[in-house]
Design goal:
Elements (H helix, E strand, L loop, with lengths): L31 E7 L10 E7 L9 E4 L8 E7 L7 E10 L2 E7 L1 E5 L5 E7 L5 E7 L6
Length: 145
Amino acid sequence: MAEKTHAKYFVWSDKPNLTYPSYRPVMDPKLFRKIVHLDADVVDDTDFYSEAMWIMPGEAFNTGVKYVEAHTHSWGEFLGFYGYNYDNIYDLGAEIEFTIDGKTYNITESFASFIPAGIEHGPLIIKNVTRPVMHFTAGPTLRYE
């Protein structure tokens, strides 16, 4: 546990009553296990948001689950998807179909990406999840909007 003087800088659970913009559909908590969402509502001194979750295998992914619709932000966004395969850390254990600025990519390896401000991204569709996938996102904004 963190020292009491710095405890306010550690976040151990998801943001209570978190709501998402309309371009982000409701996530099944059995498939998307949220770890933490950090923003200015959670830690007063922050000037960015970040979110982490596990994406778990499930039959719904056989046909694909739309994680996010096409949208833009006025700020740049970091996205990362990382496979949970000790024998091959580059094996994502899933397929991510991700459209960026009108071009669709089918990704099967662990990756990180940065989407600059104003660049349309999405839809992002998650398919064929065979083992847990760690997902992390962050951006220089007080709240995810």
